[in-house]
Amino acid sequence: MHFFPKKPALPLVCSALVAACSLMVQAAQNGSEEAAKQMKSLIPGVGLEASLFALEPMVVNPTNIDIDAKGRVWVTEGANYRLFQKWGKLRPEGDRILILEDSNGDGSADKQTVFYQGNDVNAALGICVLGNKVIVSSSPNVFVFTDENGDGKSDKKEVLFTGIAGADHDHAVHAFVFGPDGKVYFNFGNAGRRLLCPDGSPVKDRFGREITDQGRPYRQGMVFRSNLDGTDVEVLGHNFRNNVEVCVDSFGGMWQSDNDDDGNKGVRINYVMDFGNFGYTDEMTGAGWSQKRTNWETEIPNRHWHLNDPGVVPNLLITGGGSPTGILFYEGSLLPAVYQRSIIHCDAGPRVVRAYTPKAAGAGYNAETVNVLTSSDNWYRPSDVCTAPDGSLFIADWNDAGVGGHNMADQKLEAMTGRIYRVAPQGSGPKSTVPKLDLDSAAGCVTALQSPNGATRYLAWTKLHEMQGKAESALKKLWLGNDQDLRARAWNLLARIRGSEETYVNAAASDKNDSIRALALRYLRVEKRDSIALVKKLIKDASPQVRRECALSLHRNPSPEVPQLWAELAKQHDGKDRWYLEALGIGANGNEDACLEAYLKSVGDSWNTVSGRDVIWRSRSKNTPAFLVKIITDKATPETEKPRYLRSLDFIKGPEKDAALVELLTAETK
What we know:
The chain contains 18 helices and 26 strands. The strands form 6 sheets. It has a 5-stranded antiparallel sheet. The chain has a 5-stranded mixed sheet with strand order 11-12-13-14-18. Strands 2-26-25-24 form a 4-stranded antiparallel sheet.
């Protein structure tokens, strides 16, 4: 699958061999006895244990899961995965959306409800439960199903988005997730190509541009944010290959994985910087990473993402070969501390679920890695992970002999497998607990807002937002506490109480916590409020994370104050922080000429420093080529650095570039 791409970490097995051996392998893997054997092969991370929650025939080929506020596990299945392959449609009535429940409290699912079944959700790649509404991602459509009478069955189906390419393809539209700002976040891989409204008209971004992958300006896979009804769509990042899911922390930080071109050891984890280009193809031409270019990277994993090019946001991690799948940001307290505030990520090829704990490093991040659940059994293929209301993890296992080649080994419905495991602290046993919900009072809703489970937080957020000022007192108790994640969740609601917005923005801007100050800037962008006054207040903040958000807040901002503010931020670049430099480049977008002019006027003849040359290298101004020529022809510039500045010229158009090239040619002939 291409959430299981064509390069397993285990020895490569061709599709034909997998198919030839499949019947024999199926007999050895199907059923509770074989599931018990496979359980013995699971290797939980330090301080963790795993238990079996569900298996075939209750669930087969789980592609994606979510967990509701009642602790029920919702599953999309892929029995009809890759219909164009020789096995054809294995389930004629279409794939299922299931609700799995442990009704007797023994830790195993004993109740299955088919919420919906149809060929329009074959091998759906995403499910998001929001109260009585369920968002299902299945290219070419994103559906919203509604259970109007609470019986666990869909009563209404509506189209949220359509026209997304990549039907029956893993690089298509993926799961939605509810954010701390009341928006939904989602993505598609590079097969998605476009986004259309239900009536077939093109969806446009906040700047009026049609959302397509044709380089005007977006390319390849993208990350989006929108209202729950599909309005006000924003493209928050682009130029990914197959970015399977995006997760969002309580501060609105976005994290996701992305798969390389199979076999290049370049699978990556990204922090999604607003409006960033993430370098899968050439920004200007759309050329692939293997096409020769000036100053290309020595190592293929870096070359794969154009990391030497100006205008490419750095990766958080490169994790090597793999098949990245589901992801979440864990903000629970049940698991041991090493897993808390971590990105929890499934990688099906190497058969592992890992935790990456991001730590601020300049304007960006670095991360440490620990395993959550792996296995020595070749059929263990984790496809998704979700947090339950008690803080335990549930992991879906597609369960197949190999990955890749758009193939699967179990090509008969009666022999298909699929598993769901629960991961919890060692010694805690298999039973989950579900905290009782009180959504009738503000205090009860604030308690629910503290849940590690996204579906529970959605219910709480919705009620608290409806209460407006009536919820302020209860929310302020959380805001004035010590848990920074919970403070951020409370603040996101307090700042949306009508008439109190400015009060809470000012409070956040003066907070001691860097992430809270940065949150105030992010909030103004989300709400499309004027951010110039706050940028002016925080422009010399000690934290590069806060100044990064200042720079991003200038992106395509029409204020005449932008150039001078940008120049002040640019002067604080230390010449080492690529994340900060890329934030500056994003912030100058739409004002490139004026921004560089203001910077040069501010620094005068002192521009020729390590940091100043960085600013020139990343800029896209009409004046940039002349300064690049000065750097390239400067005898003090090492020969090894000149290709870097030559490459920068590829990202600029116009007569100024032509004149610079002539000057360079003339200089070479002298």
